[in-house]
Design brief:
This protein is α+β, with helices and mostly antiparallel strands. The chain has nine helices and 19 strands.
Length: 359
């Protein structure tokens, strides 16, 4: 593909950008295409930071809105014959392939709006960024916030993550911990001379199994928490009593607490164990109390919902910008081998945002 046509059917545009493989770390080709397409739009000022792009109108409007989305995907499916891969395919009006829901449909809507809205109601900042699906320290949006924070300033932000076409306010925070057990190595033929650290990990798993996650109401929305073991590692060899084991625990916490408060919950649950936090990011409160958010909800005509997964609305919240999630596709299909989005859902999302942003 030599170039993107931003004015074609947004469902076809979605298909085209899905066909450019952009697993995290391999976003350059798609970033190049988007940069070239945006550069042809005279009403936008375009900035590039590696594979993150910012395009802005500067019309002197009273308010500024950010429309943001990541251009990377998780790795391609390993299952032979999976529909959720690259290139994409269309079956009965449904678009299948990696990134269909998370989140090439949303990115296509941003691109279409960038071309359509030459005289919008609010000034608009379009952000396309890399490395969302990997460690937070690699995030292209985080890099933009460090290098060019002035480009991100706004009154309100929408992250076009999949929400099935409903506004989802805020997001849960996320954190990862290693819960470690320590034993004493010995030959497995003389096991009584050692102490088995893997056996001790059963106590970690027992506490997790007994743990009851909470549902917490924040600004009228109910956020479900979750704490789960996601990986376990231990052992030296087939004839050695293991002296070390670690269980990786993922805690998704409601936005009524910050990362430090979430860590306190985990440490209390695993009191007596060696606990190390390896990663984490605060959530975001819903931010639906602004007039500009109410206008979007009124156009949509549906009650907002909470966002259970972590998204980059949290980064905007940390910058003092209220943000919501709104995009095409079912988030439950994200990262699956059957990832898909109805073509009409992408068109409907475009129509809603175009109506909201037009004079």
């Amino acid at each position: 593909m030599n170039e993107l046509d931003l004015r074609q059917d947004v469902a076809v545009l979605t298909e085209e950008i899905m066909n450019v493989e952009s697993v995290s770390g391999n976003e350059k080709q798609l970033a190049d295409l988007i940069f070239a397409a945006l550069g042809k739009l005279e009403h936008l000022q375009v900035h590039r930071d590696e594979d993150a792009l910012v395009a802005r109108t500067n019309l002197g409007r009273e308010r500024r809105v950010v429309l943001a989305g990541h251009i990377d995907t998780v790795p391609l499916p390993r299952t032979e014959g999976s529909k959720g891969t690259v290139p994409s395919q269309v079956i009965d009006g449904v678009l299948y392939g990696r990134g269909a829901t998370d989140m090439k449909g949303g990115v296509a809507v941003q691109l279409a709006l960038a071309a359509l809205l030459t005289d919008p109601k609010h000034d608009i900042t379009f952000i396309f960024y890399d490395h969302e699906e990997v460690e937070a320290e690699k995030s292209g949006l985080g890099r933009l916030a460090r290098n060019n924070p002035e480009l991100l300033g706004a009154d309100f932000a929408i992250l076009l993550e999949p929400t099935n076409g409903t506004v989802e306010g805020g997001c849960n925070g996320t954190s990862r911990f290693l819960v470690r057990t320590h034993g004493q190595a010995a030959h497995s033929a003389r096991a009584w001379m050692g102490h088995n650290a893997i056996h001790d990990a059963s106590q970690v798993l027992s506490r997790l199994a007994a743990y009851e996650p909470r549902t917490i109401t924040v600004e009228g929305l109910e956020f479900r928490e979750g704490m789960n073991a996601v990986r376990i590692n231990g052992g030296v060899a087939g004839n050695v009593i293991p002296d070390y084991c670690e269980v990786e625990v993922n805690y998704r916490f409601a936005p009524d607490k910050n990362l430090e408060q979430a860590e306190a919950v985990v440490r209390e649950l695993f009191d007596g164990f060696d606990v190390v936090r390896t990663d984490g990011a605060d959530g975001a409160r819903p931010g639906l109390d602004q007039e500009i958010a109410a206008e979007l909800i009124a156009v949509l005509g549906e009650e907002p919902k909470p966002k259970y997964g972590w998204t980059d609305v949290a980064r905007f919240s940390a910058l003092g910008i209220s943000a919501v999630n709104f995009g095409p596709g079912d988030a439950l299909l994200a990262h699956s081998d059957d990832e898909h989005v109805p073509q009409q859902a992408v068109r409907d999302c475009l129509a809603t945002l175009q109506a909201w942003l037009s004079k």
